[in-house]
Every structure is written in structure tokens, then in C-alpha cells.
Write a structure and sequence with these properties.
single chain; about 240 residues; mainly alpha; 2 domains; about 80% helix
């Protein structure tokens, strides 16, 4: 007969595996748009003069698609180093908001888990995870869902980047792959836009991006991100004050 310890361990593995696979399944629809974007990044990085090794290492270590794409674009435009760094820093400010949003659901985890999940935290991993956590609350194996979503995205990003580097300049220029990522982001953002501050932040950032599109070195992205963050933060603060007794 199995001991209680063995049964407990088996139950732990089964529940963790179940939650992990749920995260993978939730991520699959988003991976359809991520894969071509990874290929575009790989080809773009090579055309920008970044070595194949460095391009792949950016995907493995940095693992931030928007930042990598922007860095390659700015490098191709011969932008100053401080502009590249500033642009990437501002664009990635949203991850601070993601972390703050997920913190109540993950605060009980060990430091090792927090390091791992923070590395895997991306737009695509955050979207399905926060929806699940807001609906079901904190459960013993909730973090395995985020691990599954994040790892499946990480693996897809490595493969797509490698394929883009391998194909390189041979990729046909008339294939509209650049539409894949915006469509993916729309699919992620729309289900989350349930509160006025989030809607206002998204709309204000979008309008600013359109109006500032012609700014040099893609500085319009910085401006749009700052406007969206400020609008969302201010309105969220006001909403919180109104809820206080």
C-alpha cells in the first residue's frame, strides 16, 4: 500500500501539472500572433547589424519582444545609445504595473519562484493569468498557471527568433506579418478593459501614439506610454478615493 507521503506527493504533482497545462492552453491562441513577430524580430535584428548570436541571446536573456523590436529598429536608424535605453526603459514601465497587479496573488511564494515568474512575465502571460486570478482568487497551485503561460511563450519566442535569424533576408517582404502582433495585443487588451481608468489609459495612449507618430527615433512611443500611465494612474487614484468610506 502507498504511504500517505507518496499519495501526497502524487497529488501535488498532479495538481501542479494540471495548473501548468491550463496556463499553456490559455496561451496557445496568443502564440499564433507571437510566432510571426518573433520571426520578424530575428530578420530585423540581422538587417540592423546585430550578430546572429547576439540576436538570439537577446531573446533568451532579455525576453522582451517589444523592447527587442524597438532596439533593433533604433539600431538600424543609428539612434544614439541613450535614446535606445530611454525608449526601452519607458516601454517596459508597464511591467511594474503588471507586477503590482499580480503581487496580491503571488506574495506568498518563495523568492526563487518570484524571480522565475518575474523573468517569464510578459504581456501575453499576464493577460490570461490576471483574468484567472481575478475570477478564482488565490489557490495553492495558482502560480503554476503563470509558469505554464510564461514558459510556453518563452519557448515559442526562442524558436521563432531562431527561425527568423535562419531565414534572414530571404523572408518575402510582401507578407504582412507585421499585423500579427497588433492583432494579438488587441485580443489581450480588450478582455481586460473593464474599468474606466484602464479604458482611458488605452484610449489616451493610442491617440497620443497616432498624433506623435512622426516624431524622430520613435519618441512617440515614449510619449504615448507616459500619457497612458499618467492617465490610468490618476483616474485609478481618484476611483480608489471615492471607494473609501
Amino acid at each position: 500500500m502507498e504511504s500517505s507521503v507518496v499519495k501526497e506527493k502524487r497529488g501535488f504533482v498532479n495538481e501542479a501539472q494540471k495548473s501548468f497545462l491550463e496556463g499553456v492552453r490559455a496561451e496557445v491562441p496568443l502564440l499564433i500572433g507571437v510566432f510571426p513577430f518573433g520571426m520578424i524580430y530575428g530578420a530585423l535584428a540581422l538587417n540592423a547589424g546585430i550578430s546572429a548570436f547576439a540576436s538570439q541571446m537577446m531573446s533568451s536573456i532579455v525576453f522582451a519582444g517589444s523592447s527587442q523590436f524597438i532596439a533593433a529598429k533604433l539600431a538600424a536608424d543609428s539612434a544614439p545609445g541613450f535614446v535606445i535605453i530611454l525608449t526601452i526603459a519607458v516601454v517596459n514601465l508597464r511591467h511594474m504595473l503588471y507586477s503590482a497587479s499580480l503581487a496580491p496573488y503571488l506574495k506568498h511564494l518563495s523568492l526563487r519562484w518570484k524571480f522565475l515568474l518575474s523573468y517569464l512575465l510578459t504581456d501575453e502571460a499576464y493577460a490570461p493569468s490576471i483574468l484567472k486570478y481575478e475570477k478564482e482568487g488565490v489557490k495553492p497551485f495558482s502560480h503554476w498557471f503563470l509558469l505554464g503561460a510564461g514558459f510556453s511563450l518563452w519557448f515559442t519566442w526562442q524558436v521563432s527568433t531562431a527561425l527568423g535569424i535562419f531565414v534572414g533576408t530571404e523572408m518575402p517582404g510582401d507578407i504582412p506579418l507585421e499585423f500579427a502582433l497588433p492583432l494579438t495585443f488587441i485580443a489581450m487588451v480588450v478582455p481586460i478593459l473593464k474599468k474606466r481608468p484602464l479604458v482611458a489609459a488605452a484610449v489616451s495612449a493610442g491617440i497620443t501614439a497616432l498624433l506623435a507618430y512622426n516624431l524622430p527615433f520613435r519618441l512617440g512611443l515614449i510619449l504615448a506610454a507616459l500619457v497612458g500611465i499618467i492617465v490610468g494612474t490618476v483616474l485609478e487614484g481618484r476611483a480608489s478615493q471615492k471607494e473609501l468610506p
